[in-house]
Specification:
- It is a single chain.
- With 42 residues, the chain is mainly α.
- It has 1 helix and no strands.
- The longest helix is centred in the last third of the chain and has 19 residues.
């Protein structure tokens, strides 16, 4: 079972400022989803 954790902090200093990007989260989610799909196929 794939497990993922963020490699970054919580970004409290920029939370609510509109400067936050979800790109890193979406990339990590995509990688974990592909790993899970491959684990099911094996």
């Amino acid at each position: 079972m794939p497990i993922g954790t963020p490699a970054h902090g919580t970004a409290y200093d920029i939370a609510g400022t509109g400067r936050v990007s979800n790109t890193a989260f979406m990339t990590a989610f995509d990688i974990i989803a592909r790993q899970a799909q491959n684990a099911i196929a094996d």
